[in-house]
């Protein structure tokens, strides 16, 4: 079983990578660092919240675990 702290740290690291990627995508798509960064921040905030909920739900599912 995974601790909540581990789930949160994993989510933060994953979302930091996504934030960097989305900032670049937003910059190339809009030509504006400010707009690209804002889009990336909104996407990251929503994604982080959903990922934490998703991880906690799966932490309670026993299907597919050994032992």
TrEMBL record:
The answer on whether this UniProt entry bears the keyword Membrane reads: yes
The alphabetical list of record keywords is: Membrane, Transmembrane, Transmembrane helix
User: Which InterPro entries would you find in this protein's record?
Assistant: DUF2061_membrane (IPR018638)
**Segments passing through the bilayer:** 12-29, 35-54
Residue ranges constituting the DUF2061 domain according to the UniProt record: 8-59
Task: Give the protein name, as stated in the record.
Answer: DUF2061 domain-containing protein
